[in-house]
Amino acid sequence: MLKYKLIENVAITSAPPFFTFTSLAPNVSLYDFSSLSDEVLAFSEALDANGTLCQSSKNEWGTSPIVVTGTAQELLSIINMAKLNLSPQMVRELELAIEHADECVTGWTMMSVVRLFQYPIARDSKEFGQVPAVDTHVFPDYTECRPVVEITDELVGSKLALDTEGRDLLEVVPDQLKLFPYSFTSSLPQISRSAPADKSKTKNGATTVVQSYFRAYYGGCRVRAVNTTGVFIEDTCEGSKHWLSYGLMVHSPDDIPLCSTGDVCIHNFFNSLWEWEHYIDPNVPNRVGINLNTFRSRYADRVSISILPGLVVAQMLASGIISLYQVMSHKRSVLLTQIWAYRCQNGVMQVIYLAQVMYHLIYNSDLYLLGLATGTLTTASIANLTCSFFAFRTRSSTWSRLGRGISDWIVDFDSRGR
């Protein structure tokens, strides 16, 4: 409750002071609790007695969040007692969870943590600036238990905070800002909050789950709409001069890429409003385990790739056509001509063909392995692998035919000689 003083009555706060204070070890002697009222202290003791799970200080990921896990009612009481400025949508989700607690049994977690936001720095440019800021997020243990609440004027009103004189600040944005749903209306692609789920892997056998909305801020206030008129914020919020200097701040997803040695990457963009289910292993009672519930959007870098295997197959087919013409037009024994053609075509040339294919596969092995492992192979890559397989199979069958042809010729020659 003491650390929640950092975000009392504000939607977002600066990262440095938050990180400095929340990084302190959970040692009572390091804190001054005189700013907390008797009512807050009694409430805190009641939470401890009920088994509410609280976490702070630096964790294994190098960040220092404030995390509280309990029932929906406990979290709503904390929000009211600590005077936290949360999205009305999330507050309504908790209220509905309390009203329908028996319909989907789940715990709830509230996390305040440093997140990354992007803001436009030049007109009609995809180059956005980045700034860390702290906001608070509420989520259930099981995503299928999240009530679907949309932000409407009945929930919270809006007012014009910035007149853009016909310019849409989000007309041109980085691609990663088009991957997840946002809580405000804008020209960004409309992404559904609902995602299909494997029935056997959800707690309650649900076939769909609901992900959290990303948010945007202007002047420290939650944004309701961005259009050619301007930027609209919640009508209950008064702007902060500190945050006005950054302009429109849009929540950014987390990119956890998987890259090849040549810096070609599979970009795994995650909904950075991370959610999980807590558990405590009886064998390790002093540590908290988590089962992550993640929403991911993935795409791969597009790179040009050599078509050498296709050229090799083309060479082999052209060589075969030439050999066939030589066989059909030669006046000597067809068998002797076949042997001669096979030897000429498949002696030195087979070595050259295979050397070209092997060079291509070795040189691009990291790209093929990355594509095969992640299912992101392009049509050109699949064609290359098909041609490579064809080249190897043709080489094996050709050499086997050549061996049988020579053996038959030798046997025939020996019988004639005798």
TrEMBL record:
Keywords from the named record: Membrane, Transmembrane, Transmembrane helix
Q: Which named protein is this?
A: Transmembrane protein
- From which organism does this entry originate? Phytophthora fragariae
Membrane-spanning residues: 307-328, 368-392
